[in-house]
Amino acid sequence: MSFATALALAVGLFVAAPIAAHLLRRRRAGEVVLPTARLLSTTPPAARRRSALEDRGLFVVRLLAVVLLALLGATPFVSCSKLALLRKDGASVAMVLVVDDSLSMSATSGDETRFERAKRAARELVSAVEPGDSVAIVLAGREVRVHLSPTTDREAIDKAIAALEPSHRPTDLEDALRIGRDLLRRSPQADKRLVLLSDLADGHADAPPLDVDSDVSLWTPIPELAARSEADCAIRSAERLGDRVDVAFVCTEGATAAGRAVSIFDKKTEIAKEQVPDGADSVALKVPEGAGNALDAVLSPGDAVAADDAAPVVEHARDLSLAIVADAAAAHVETGGPPPVERALAALGLGAMTKPVATIPEHAEELAAFAGMILDDPPGLTPEERRSAAEWVEGGGTIVLSLGRRAASAPLGAGFGDLLPGVVRWSSEAPAGATPASCAFFGASAESLAELAPKGRVSIDHEAVQGAEVLCAWSDGAPLLLRRRIGRGSVLVSSLPFDLDTSDLPLRPAFLVLLDRFVEHARARGGSRVVEAGEAFVVHGFDKVEASLQPVGSERAETLPAVQKDGTFRVAAPRIGRYSLSLDGSSDVRFAVVPEGEVDLRPRGVAQRAADPSLGGQTRELDASPYVAFALLALLVLELAVRAFSQGSRA
């Protein structure tokens, strides 16, 4: 409240004046008894009753007059404003509200978060909707979603706005504006308005300003949302390895976590705490023996965005572990070093941890640590290896099996069993390359397979090809790459080995595509255990998937939907936290961590015409001065009427 407003309201203290006057007027004079008074007859106190009626009426009127006078003085300084949408020639409007529900919108601005301010602005704009206007809502957190399709139903619009909830997703303004523009183009209204309610912090502050085509007006009605926020630091990762928890941070440009404290909580009990030293971007904390498996890391004190100051501690975060069974001598490289398949995986930088193994473990339990396995021209498999590998694949494992001379010369009793039925035969003659049209699996890289010029190839029995999916064929029609599905898993079989002596396949772009797709399938087998908030856990080959989220610091779990399409389940992870998945009855734990781009709070530029005042702006919603003045005038007339009535009664 301003000083002028307080001063005007202080006039209300003068309400004591009528009270004092009333009390003084009601005071009785002292009585003097005259001896001759008993000779006079008693007269009824009519005048006293008239005086009492006049006093009460005037007293109430004057009290109200003083109060209204104080309010009249204050109302010019008290105003309530809201967003108003200006119409072009009074025409109906098609409006799409692009609401940013990303992590950066959790930053506090005044007494409310940026998301709460955007939600309030959406209500204000919708309050002015008239019959014939259509409204749609698009959420700008990745993946962009149409929260409300275009509708003229006011009740549906109000319910959709009330259902808006913040998330920890990264921001995708460009895709949100594109989808909003497409919705508007299908609207019959001539006045099309794309309203952006965002802090514009999409992690691309240096990118070109946001804009849309000229047939759609882009409007940013709340520029204060994009005001530069204070520094923010987030817990990028928290990984537990034995009795140690490694916590890493990421901060806005120029900010540091130095001087703040990192704590590890087992439920609500703090079990470890360390100060962040100067210049450090990570801290290692030792946790006591007996600590639980559901630990949380918390950075304190808080900052601009409280939601990213806490993260679940991930058990063995390097979840994508790939086993590589290859003969280093057979798959040698002239320059030395690991085999080509290991080099290619390292060059792709897919976040996978490769582990060379001499042989396949003979127990399926030992294979459970791997998300995928590459068998590069193995000399067959023993019965124990075949059994454990088949069980692992049936449970959802993914294998890449490349075949060459060594696979064809497997010793007696060493075959591939259910992984690849039949006999493998090596031939020193092979076509020049594959038919690109039959290799859609490799995308644009299929052209690179047209001239492989191999020194030989493997032929696969019809038994192995029957029921399999040929992903790429030689120019003579024989399979170069096929996929066999076994249970919930799959085996990718290549009729060329991955050594440079047989062909230059490992040097071609298609080889990198093969490994990239293999890693993708390995993730989809059980899904990556750690994703950024806003991504989804993808699991393949299960009949029933259920999911729930337990936010950091909360003991209550929230049920989440698992969307199924073509045999694949997707569970969206909208917030940072620990996710529990039930996969055909077996329990699994997944984690969603902070999207690093959301820590960059610098706003992105917007085209200047998005602030055009002709589109709308803040308008005064309430100015009570005329009404208070009218009431004061009415009280004046009422006082005159009371006085006239009082005088008439006395007459």
Spell out the blueprint of helices and strands.
Blueprint lengths: L2 H7 L6 H10 L20 H29 L5 E6 L7 E7 L8 E2 L2 E2 H13 L7 E6 L5 E7 L2 H9 L10 H13 L5 E7 L19 E3 L13 E9 L2 E8 L9 E6 L2 E7 L6 E5 L8 E6 L9 E3 L1 E2 L5 E6 L13 H9 L4 E4 L7 H4 L4 E5 L6 H12 L3 E5 L2 H4 L15 E4 L29 E4 L1 H4 L3 E5 L5 E8 L2 E6 L14 H18 L3 E3 L3 E5 L4 E7 L6 E3 L2 E3 L2 E5 L4 E7 L2 E8 L22 E7 L2 H26 L1
Parallel strand pairs: 2-5, 2-7, 7-8, 9-16, 17-18, 17-19, 19-20, 20-25, 26-33
Antiparallel strand pairs: 1-34, 3-4, 5-6, 9-10, 10-13, 11-12, 11-14, 14-15, 21-22, 23-24, 24-25, 27-31, 28-29, 28-32, 30-31, 32-33
Helix pairs in contact: 1-3, 2-3, 3-13, 4-5, 7-12
β-sheet strand percentage:
25-35%
- Largest sheet, order of strands side by side? 18-17-19-20-25-24-23
Rounded to an integer in angstroms, the radius of gyration calculated over CA atoms is 38 Å
Helix run count: 13
Outline:
elongated
Characterize the main sheet. Answer: 7 strands, mixed
Q: How far from one another are the termini?
A: 51 Å
Indicate the low-confidence ranges by residue numbers. Answer: 47-54
Structurally, the number of domains stands at 4
Strand tally is: 34
**CATH architectural designation of the largest domain:** 3-Layer(aba) Sandwich
Structural class per helix/strand content?
alpha/beta
For the record, what CATH class of the largest domain applies?
A: Alpha Beta
CATH fold-level label of the largest domain: Rossmann fold
